[in-house]
Amino acid sequence: MKLDSNLDTFPKLLFNRKKISPNQPAIREKDFGIWQTWTWAEVVEEVQTVAYGLAAAGFCRGDKLAIVGDNRPRLYWGMAAAQSLGGIPVPLYQDSVAQEMEYVINHADVKFALVEDQEQVDKMLEISPKCPKLKQIFYDDPRGMRHYKLDNLVEYEQLKVEGEKFKAAHSDFLNAEIEKGKSRDIAIFLYTSGTTGFPKGVILTYHNILKTVQNSIEFDGLTDKEECLAYLPMAWVGDHIFSYAQSYVAGFCVSCPERAATVMQDMQEIGPTYFFSPPRIFENILTNVLVRMEDASWIKRKMFDYFIGVANRCGVEILEKRSVSIIDRFLYMLGKFLVYGPVKNTMGFSRMRLAYTAGEAIGPEIFAFFRSLGINVKQLYGQTEAAVYITVQKDNDVKPDTCGPPFPDVEVKIADSGEIMYRSPGVFQSYYKNPEATLSTRTGDGWVFTGDAGFFDDDGHLKIIDRVKDVGRLNDGTLFAPKFLENKLKFFPQIQEAVTFGDKQDYVSAFINIDLDAISNWAERHHVSYGSYQELAANDQVYEMIERCIKKTNQDLANDSEISGSQIQRFLILHKELDADDGELTRTRKVRRRIISERFNSLIEALYSDSNWGHIENVVTFEDGRKGKMVADLEIKHVTTFEPMKMAS
Questions:
Q1: Residue 103 and residue 97: Cα distance in Å, rounded?
Q2: Which residues are within 8 A (CB) of 173 and not within 5 positions of it... i.e. 6 or more apart?
Q3: How far apart (Å, rounded) are the C-alpha atoms in residues 264 and 194?
C-alpha cells in the first residue's frame, strides 16, 4: 500500500483516521468482564486531551515518556500523545524489577512516566531517588492509591483535567506541534532484551517503522477488518509493530485482554483474525490442548489421536491447496467437524486468517501441528534493529525449518563467517548513547550484523542454525547447535525450558525445567502427592517421563547426519524454574547462557563427571523481592543414544 506522503508520523495517521473512519472500532479493553470499545474519533479525543495534559506538565519536544504496564488503551494513548508533542515514548517491560527499570530510566534520560497501577508506581517511587531526571509519574489505575499523596504523582483522570484547561487556553497548540513532526524524527526507543549485558536502546524513526509496516500490510493483504489481540509486552518490538503501528496504518481494531491469566479466554471471545506470537506461546497453547486431552474420556482421546493422524498426513496439503486423495479429504472434513473445529475454538483460533511466530526458532513439530489444523501460521525472522522484518514466509510456500525469503525491500547476505547480514529501510538509526555498539553492529553502508548463523537453501529460504557465538563443536568435530536441540525438547508438553551443553565436550548434556501445569496435571491424575516444584522435579516417575522425551529426541536426531552426534547423553531436572528475576532469562524469556553457566557451574561439572548426582547452592529471588538460598542434590540420568541412520548409496 502507498500512504499519503504527508501522513509521515503516527499522530498524523491517527488524526487522519478520525476523518476517514471516525465510527469504526479502534481499540477494545476487557475490564470487570465487560468489553469496552473506543472508535477512532474517541481515541483522537483521548490522545488530544492527554497530549495537552502532558504539555501542561512541562513535556516538551524531545522529552522521553516511560510507558510501563500491561497492554492498556490509556498506555497506547500516552504513547501517541508523547509523539504528538514531538516526544519519544520508551516502553519498559512491566515485569522488570525496580533496578532494571532504573537503568533504562537513567540511560534514556526519561523525565516523565505513565504507568498502569500501584505495583508500577511503587517501582517508580523506589528508584526515583536514583533517577534525578524523572520529574513526574502519571498512573492509570487508582486502586490502592488513596493514601499516595505526592506532588510528582498524578492520576490519569487528573492529567486529563489539566489537559482540558491547557486546551482551552491554547487551542491551536497541538495541531501546530503535530505538523512539526517529520518522517525522519525519532518515533520510539525500544530496549533490547540484554542477553549478553545491559540492554541497548534501539532508535527507530517514523520512516523506519512506516515504510516497513506499509510493506507488511501489502505483503499479507491486511485490511481495516482485521481483529488483533494485544497481549505481548509493549516494550517488545513485535507488539509495537503489530498492535500499534499496523493498526494506525491499516485501521484495524486491537483488543487488550483483561489480564495475563485470561488471555486464552479473551481470545475465544474476540476470535482474532490476525495473531503474532513468539514460539513459547504456541508451545503453551499446544501444552494446554494436550493436557486437556489427558483428562478427556477414552473415546475422545482415541478420536483426537486418530484425526490428528489424518491432519498430520494431509492437513498441510489441504491448507496449501495441493492435491489430496478423496478419502483423505473426506476424513479431514470429518475431523474438522469432530476435532479440529472444537480444538481451534478452544484456542481462540476459529476466525484466524493469518498468524506469525518469531523471536526465536519454533520446533518444526509444533509448527506442523498448527498448520495441519488449517491455521495459516507462518514464520518470520526479524530483529528490533530491523523494525521486525528481515525474511518472511509467503502463503503456500512455507517450510517448517526455514524463515522464508527476504522481505520486500530487504537485502540479506551471509558473511564469510556464516553470520546473517541485512540492509533495509527499517534499519535502526543507532543505539542510544552507545556509538561503539552501533559501529560494531551496523556498517557504514547500512548492513547490519545479526549475530545469527544461517544459510539459504536451494529455494532461497533462510535457515537459522543458532546464535553465532553459541554454535560450537564437540571434541570429535560434531556440530553443536544448542537452540536447535532445545527447541526439539520443548515440543514435549512436559518440558517448559531446556538448556544444552556440549561445546568442547565429549558429548551433549542438558538441564531440564519441567512444565509445572502439565506435570502437576499428571500428578493429580496419578495420585502423586507433592509439596513444591522442587519435590515434583525430583520425583522418579517424572525423571522417567523426561527420559522418554529425550530418548525420542535422540531417535529424531539420529536421522540427521549433520547433527546425529549431538544426541543428549546425560541430563538432570533443575530444582527451580529458570527465572528472569534471577537473571537466568531475559524479559522476553530468552536463555542467558553465560549467567546460567556461572550460577550452575557445579551442576555442569557433575554432568561431565562420573557422578550420578550434582550438588547446588544458589540465591533465588522470591515474588516479594526477598532473597533466599536454595540447596539441592540433583540426580543425573544417562539416556540411550542411537546409531545414525545410514545414507542410501
A1: 11
A2: 52, 55, 166, 167
A3: 29
Query: In what helix (H) or strand (E) does residue 453 lie, and over which residues does it extend?
Result: strand 448-456
Angle 106-108-111 from CA coordinates, rounded to 5°: 75
| Arch. (CATH architecture) of 472-638 | 2-Layer Sandwich (3.30)
Cα 415 to its chain centre, rounded Å, is: 27
* Partners of 186 in beta bridges: 205
Residue with the three cell numbers 527420559: 547
As a whole number of angstroms, the distance between CA 496 and CA 637 comes to: 18
Alpha helices in 196-256 (DSSP H): 206-220, 237-239, 246-250
Nearest to 126 by CA among 105, 106, 99: 99
Greatest pairwise CA separation for the chain in angstroms: 85
- Answer yes or no: are the C-beta atoms of 262 and 489 closer than 8 Å: no
Q: What percent of the chain shows pLDDT beyond 70?
A: 97
Identify the three-state secondary structure at position 340.
helix
- Asked whether residue 559 carries a pLDDT value surpassing 60, the answer given is yes
pLDDT digits (tens, 9 = 90+) for 187-240: 999 998 765 568 999 999 999 999 999 999 999 999 999 999 999 999 999 999
Residue 637, SS3 per DSSP: strand
Domain segments of the chain as ranges = 10-181+222-273, 278-375, 472-638
Of 442, 434, 432, 465, give the one whose Cα is nearest residue 386. 442
Tell me the C-alpha distance between 50 and 73, whole Å: 12
Look up residue 52 and give its three cell numbers: 495537552
The full 3-state SS of 384-409, as one line of letters, equals HHHCEEEEECECCECCCCCCCCECCC
Residue with cell 486491537: 254
Residue found under cell 524489577:
97
Integer Cα distance of 614 and 635 in angstroms: 7
Q: At what angle do helices 364-372 and 279-294 cross, to 10 degrees?
A: 70
Taking Cα atoms as reference points, which of 533, 521, 536 lies closest to residue 292?
521
Beta bridge partners of 65: 89, 112
Reported confidence tier of residue 582, pLDDT bands at 50, 70, 90: confident
Span 10-181+222-273 CATH architecture = 3-Layer(aba) Sandwich (3.40)
Q: How confident is the model over 340-354, as pLDDT tens digits?
A: 999 999 899 999 999
Backbone angles phi, psi at 573, to 5 degrees: -100, 120
CB 280 within 8 A of CB 53: no
The span from the CA of 649 to the CA of 627, in Å, is 60
| pLDDT (tens digit per residue) in 633-647 | 999 999 999 988 654
Q: Return the SS3 of 267.
A: helix
Cβ pair 444, 437 in contact under 8 A: no
Mean pLDDT of the chain: 92
Beta bridge partner(s), residue 203: 189, 430
**Listed residue (72, 44, 62, 52) closest to 159, CA to CA:** 52
Alpha-carbon distance of 203 to 90, in angstroms, equals 10
Instruction: Give Cβ neighbours of residue 296 (< 8 Å, ≥ 6 apart).
Output: 304
Closest CA to 249 of 206, 203, 185: 206
Q: Which segments within 259-308 are labelled E, that is strand? A: 274-277
pTM of the model: 0.83
Of 389, 371, 373, the C-alpha closest to 381 is 389
Task: Let me know how many helices (H) and strands (E) the chain has, helices first.
Answer: 23, 27
The gap between the terminal CA atoms of the chain, to the nearest Å, is 51
